[in-house]
Amino acid sequence: MYILYEVADKIATITLNRPEVANVQNMQLLDELDAAWTRAAEDDDVAVIVVRAEGKHFSAGHDLNDRWPSPKEITLEWIYRAESRRYLEYTLRWRNTPKPSIAAVQGRIIAGGLMLCWPCDLIIASEDALFSDPVALMGIGGVEYHGHTWELGARKAKEILFTGRPVTAEEAEKTGMVNKVVPRDQLDAEARAMALQIAEMPSFGLRQAKRAVNQTLDVQGFYAAVQSVFDIHQTGHGNALSVSGYPILVKLDEMKEKIK
Fold this sequence. Notes:
By secondary structure, this protein is an alpha/beta fold. The chain has helices at residues 27-42, 64-67, 76-95, 114-117, 148-152, 154-163, 169-175, 187-199, 203-219, 222-241, 248-257; strands at 3-8, 11-16, 48-53, 101-105, 108-110, 122-126, 130-132, 167-168, 180-182. Helix 3 (76-95) packs antiparallel against helix 10 (222-241).
């Protein structure tokens, strides 16, 4: 099992549990994570959902070695179908879960790691958290779940995508991407304290408040933008398929080796 799940005091805690590989996401982990979200959403005893991770890093993104066939067997149709389900449908479902959710993140949050925390309503980060999305380095300009413009603002989003540099927890708090920054040893306690406070609020009021904010973003174009950028992302895969045996696999693996 790559996901741990527990409920206490009206809080469902969902834990990523692949710390030995920086919680990179294989298909099984994402399927288990979606099942945990669904379980929490359907449980009347759960008022708030907390997503956290074991180990040094929240998530270093996708485990390409697990989810991809050999380069000779990869087709754009295969990629589109696999990613549409696990990267687009799952994240939008988590984002629209009626119950409030909190992500507690630490260490590296790279590329696909962002799509595990950005769908949450609130984010608490440890002081050592670093957010990055080096997709341009891999020859891909779009992303599976494009929260960048909404989380960072247009110019900062371009800077991060153009350069691949990480965003510190302090900088993320200034942009509004992160609600609160705390010392690493206080991360879980702070997330739990916030969850307990929210859990005491009337459930219908919370549901409607979340719906109001999400629909405001959707009216501004969030939902349509995420879906259209997903298709832009697929053109990146198409380009990579035409270049020397899909070189992004090698580049991403080399990058992840440096953070273990």
